[in-house]
Amino acid sequence: MRKENRRITKRVVVLILAGMTLLTAVACGKGEDPGINLLPSVEGKGGVVNLFSPMEKTDPNAENVARSASDLTITMAEERLGVTVAYNTYTAQDHQDKTYDEVAMDRVRHNMDDIYLLNPDAILALGEEDLLIDLSGLDSAGNLREIIRTANTVNGKLVAIPQEVVAYGLFVNKDMFDALKLKLPETPEEFLECCRVFQENGIETPVGANRWWLENFVFAQAYADLYNGGNTEAEIAALNSGEAKYSDYMRPGFVFLQEMIDHGYIDAQKASVGEAIEAEGPDFLAQKTPIVMAYWGAANSDTAYGKPNFNMQVIGFPSSKGQMPVMPMTGFAIGADAEHKEDALHTLDVMVSDEALLAYAKVNKVISPSRNVEVECIPALKPLNDRIQDNIYVLGSNAGMKVEQWGNTCRIVRMLLNGSTVEECMAEFDRLQEESLAR
Question: What is the pLDDT of residues 86-96, one digit of tens each?
Fold first, then answer.
């Protein structure tokens, strides 16, 4: 049973990591056919609902095969509705492959599946193209937290529903901080000072980074006041109208990242091509690097950071309002012209019902999108969870903003890693905003 649980946990990580991996809008590298990484499932004999996701599950009818937390919810739908959920999966192997987002959006546009697990940038793009069905009529949609509706509503339609609220934070080796009598940082200035002290005491690169998640530092600094200052709707309206500039919000975070690059607190060259957790995880677990960034679920997993040989704590990113969780949204969506639309709607309704989400949350110990489902988090996550429970966080994706946030910011951060100046990065935000105003 213990071996089976490890296998379940590994598959959970594959789902969350691939689902939350930040993906570029333009293919790079060799231009290889994305089909080389595409794995079709074995279809059952009954009615089939086709699901596209980064999670491998090649035989939906196989018995005695360990299933991830998401698989458990799909099993409920299969048993209750008599359908078979057949998977097609794709995961980019490295930075030269086409990204998951590119493949997913192409499949939606060509109506190749019924249900899709989408990242926030894909949700916004496809929602604006009117290619995703409105899910607000599902019974389960009535249980959603307001934050879910805010993040996944495009042009008045609820176009995606997640199975968890993904929160990003800083994973820190508290023992290494204590050894140098350092307090866990609250502000950007305190964070940089901690990095300076670590470097002076022999830690060459204090922050382990990859090509996907550095934008969380930017979001925390850019939007701490916007989401926690009591004037959120008015500030977003000003951005959408052009009265305010995204670049003015983003600049402090990019200046901060440039300072970390200049001082060698992060390895920009390594980060620009590094895959999430694979790039920085080994040094963090070996206690060579005191700080990495990751999503909530990585603290629960045996294959990521769930069992370190040190006192690990997960805190928010530094901001003017203290440690700040960053919360983007993935979600399951259904194609507007899905071949099996009715079966897909019923299947998703079961998958995101309170009963299914409770089963999911018990396995993953995550924040549920349903306001009716609560699961106690592990001690390492308590600092991050306390902030979230106090409603202190920023959204890394918000479909109410005309300029898509998560994917664009990630891409522009990679411009910085590859040598672009802060001003060049700000000019790219201005260009994106001008395009949005012209639409």
Answer: 988 886 666 56
Separation of alpha carbons 61 and 79, rounded Å: 11
Tokens at 343, concatenated: 């079966």
- Across the chain, mean pLDDT equals 85
* Neighbour tally for 83: CB within 10 Å: 22
Q: Which amino acid is at 265?
A: Y
Q: Tally the C-alpha atoms within 13 A of residue 385's C-alpha that lie toward its C-beta.
A: 17
Question: DSSP 3-state assignment of 40?
Answer: strand
Q: What is the pLDDT of residues 300-331, one digit of tens each?
A: 776 689 889 999 999 999 999 999 999 987 89
Q: Do 207 and 291 form a contact (C-beta atoms < 8 A)?
A: yes
Measured in whole angstroms, the distance separating CA 9 from the mean position of its chain's CA atoms is 18
Measured between alpha carbons, how far is residue 2 from residues 5, 8, 95, 96, 259 in Å? Answer: 5, 10, 34, 36, 45
pLDDT score recorded for residue 362: 84
User: CA dist 288 to 7, 203, 222, 232, Å?
Assistant: 28, 7, 30, 40
- β-strand pairing of 168-173 with 291-295: antiparallel
pLDDT at 94: 62
Contact yes or no for 157/134 (Cβ under 8 A): yes
Beta-carbon contacts of residue 395 (< 8 Å; ≥ 6 apart): 147, 150, 151, 219, 223, 227, 326, 327, 328, 329, 405
- Kindly report, residue by residue over 173-226, the tens digit of the pLDDT: 999 999 999 999 999 999 999 999 999 999 999 999 998 899 999 999 999 999
Rounded distance, CA 356 to CA 10, Å? 20
Two tokens, residue 199? 């470097």
Count CA atoms within 13 Å of residue 192 on its CB side.
Answer: 15
More confident: 247 or 26: 247
- β-pairing verdict for 331-334 and 115-118: antiparallel
257 and 416 Cβ atoms separated by less than 8 Å: yes
Q: Is the dihedral of CA 73, 400, 294, 379 positive or negative?
A: negative
